[in-house]
Amino acid sequence: MPECKIVSIQHREAMTTSLIVAEVFGKRHDRVLEAIRNFIADLPEGAPFFRETSYTDLSNRAQAAYEMNRDGFSLLAMGFTGKKALGFKLKYIEAFNKMERALLNKNNLSWQHERAIGKIGRRAETDTIARFVNYATAQGSKSAKLYFMQITKMTNQALFMVSATGPQSFRDTLDSMQLSFLTTAEHIIRQVLEDGMTAGLHYRDVYKLSRDKVLAFAESLPRHRQISA
Fold first, then answer.
1. What is d(CA 60, CA 160) in angstroms, rounded to the nearest whole number?
2. What's the CA gap between 214 and 7, in Å, rounded?
3. pLDDT tens digits, 121-137
4. Residues 76, 39: contact at Cβ < 8 Å?
5. pTM beyond cutoff 0.70
6. Measured between alpha carbons, how far is 96 from 51 in angstroms, rounded to an integer?
7. Rounded Cα–Cα distance for residues 23 and 21 (Å)
8. Distance linking the first and last C-alpha atoms of the chain
9. Do both 87 and 121 map to the same domain?
10. Do the domain assignments include residue 225?
11. Where are the beta strands (DSSP E) in the chain?
12. CA-based R_g, the chain, Å
């Protein structure tokens, strides 16, 4: 299950649920509920880490469940042992980190400014890529539509931001400087594609030139910690 699915923003906080925890760790949901209720009974302040909720089962019946924040998950996961469980814990930690970075970013005016500029730049880039796809198709490419994914993946990997294409929401986890770098890289690609098409170059040469320009730009930047997709 992708990290972006196991943790989400609820009540302006990064949260997961007992159902998802049970699924990820391969536990029976009733056992997970029992463990949570034991924590609630033992905690003097009424377990602020857990919120009771419900879901509808396959028989269309309402069933009990719990939402929990990072602290609630940490308490619950203490009882999960073994090498496999450790891997799941690390996956959860990274997922919580991503969601919490996204929350912090959205409250930062500088970040909001960069994100707005980035959206405009990204739309302009995708418009140019669409024209490039038509250009490559006209020159005989049978898989030109793949350039939408290839150019995005190439850009993100060149800037050490993600290890794969990444979910649509990964930009929300970037800081202001990373967003600025990404916007600049997308502008470089847009300009190279436009210039290459105007000059009538072969589409493969245009793509290679755009890749080389972005890699050269990336090499001039301080390396950021890679974000897993």
1. 46
2. 33
3. 889 999 999 999 999 99
4. yes
5. no
6. 17
7. 5
8. 12
9. no
10. no
11. 8-10, 13-17, 50-56, 62-68
12. 23
